[in-house]
Amino acid sequence: MHPGAPGGSNVNPNAAPGPIPATTPLVVRQDQNGVQWIAFEYSRDRVKMEYTIRCDVESINVDELPQEFKTENCVYPRACCHKDQYKGNRLHYETECNTVGWALAQLNPCLRGKRGLIQRAVDSWRNSNQDPRLRSRRVRRMAKISNRKAVQQAQHGAHMAGPSGPGAAGVPNSAGLAAPGPRQPSMSMGGPQLHHHHEHPGGGPGGNDDVSAGHEYSEAHTHHHQAPNGQGNTSPNDVRQAQNFYPTFPTSSSVGGSDMPPLHDGMGHVSGHAPSHATAVPVSKQDEEERNIALFGDLPDSKRRKFILVDDVQRGTRVRVRVMLDQVQMEEMPDSYRKLNSVFPRSYFPMQMTSPPASPRGSRVFDDEAEPANESTPVAGSQLVPVPMLDGTEARVPKPRLTRAKRGKEITLNDLGYRMSWSQSRVFAGRTLFLQKSLDAYRNKMRSTMVAAGQDVTNVAPHFETRVGKRKWMERSKKSRREQSP
């Protein structure tokens, strides 16, 4: 039975997304450093998410990774043993999948500790490879079916058109013509072909698009690739040899055959040390504690709330929201999820899809803010925008810029919103307004707790104050009344 096309008429479109089959990755990018990125979808808590990961696995020497890291991030745990202790018939295949998974987990912290997500990343890496032998059996089977149908249609068209009829472009032996040779470099999209992955149809000239430019990885800008044809229509020299980074695997005939080609011949030219942009800089434990104190204040654990009740006006109920935000690991969140759940979208910036990775405060992203000379007047920007006037003319007015203090507060509130939505992704899926309301309720609760503990919220955690303007207005009113009183 051949697999049908996904999304048939008998599929319920309102059903919660379950396991998503591994297909050809949706997006392929290459940044200014030559690092290649692929995007795939995976469901977490029945919410579909898009992960964009870097796939330059040849830059990682898996032999230098600690055994604890390998045990925690292996796809097939039974293959993490000596070949004499292995129980199964796919030692070669499972060992290679583990090796690719270790390299991808080292390059992408959002994959670590999640076996199913690592397996999906490995499948996406395989299906995006230019060598058709590395692709999954399902993808190759679908490619054979598509090629068979294309050949039949071409032969039928040639039979109807006669011996001199035109043949189908790119179809072998169509209309009596010889099969085309390897694809010429002139057929690329204005630049050199990616050696490891398919060229993205939306790439700019040169093929070195920055993955963070324009944030073109959202769902609305996602471009699906054509299914791989499964034929080796490219020469062997087109396949990138730098991907052969695997150590020597057992070649005993007693081990079952693998559908992946041997990749351990080109080991000599791969450096044992990763380049400077290979992995993110790890955050020390002390820095993490200082950041948690700046976010949540210096309250004891007994004073911190675990849940709060928020009125859901749209659904007419009260929702129990988990607010143990200090236990959320920010490295697990993909950039696409952070973009969709930003309380202040203008202060969003990608964390993972940049080389080197961006800092948590966006210091290298938003570096043009300035401090105002007077707090009552906004900071004038350098960008001019046309504004219609009352007399029908247009005037070019500088666009106001955010100050560093305002930008820092919005980044902090975005951070809190990411943590709150990640704890209950199903509750906040597609509900940004409810997320904002829940975040305001959490800020008010935290502020009242800190005030009851005798702390000055304006100095310790000013981002927990929701109505700063009202407080300043009341302070000015009290000051004016005191001055007017005799």
Short description:
By secondary structure, the protein is an alpha+beta fold. 30% of the residues lie in helices and 10% in strands.
How many structural domains can be distinguished in the coordinates? 2
Q: Order of strands side by side in the largest beta sheet?
A: 1-2-3
Q: What structural category arises from helix and sheet content? A: alpha+beta
The strand count comes to 7
> Biggest sheet: strands, sense, closure?
3 strands, antiparallel
Helix and strand element order: EEEHHHHHEEHEEHHHHH
Low-confidence stretches: 1-19, 164-195, 197-259, 262-281
What percentage of residues falls in helices of 4 or more residues? 25-40%
Give the C-alpha Rg.
28 Å
- Shape descriptor reads globular
- Separate helix tally: 11
Q: Give the amount of beta strand, in percent.
A: 5-15%
Overall mean confidence score, pLDDT = 73
Distance between termini? 94 Å
Region (Disordered): 1-24, 146-288, 355-384
InterPro entries: DUF8032
Pfam family, one: DUF8032
Biased composition (Basic and acidic residues): 212-221
SSE blueprint and pairings:
Layout: E1 27-30, E2 36-44, E3 47-54, H1 67-72, H2 91-107, H3 115-127, H4 137-161, H5 285-296, E4 307-312, E5 317-322, H6 335-340, E6 379-388, E7 394-401, H7 404-423, H8 425-428, H9 432-452, H10 457-460, H11 468-484
Antiparallel strand pairs: 1-2, 2-3, 4-5, 6-7
Helix pairs in contact: 2-3
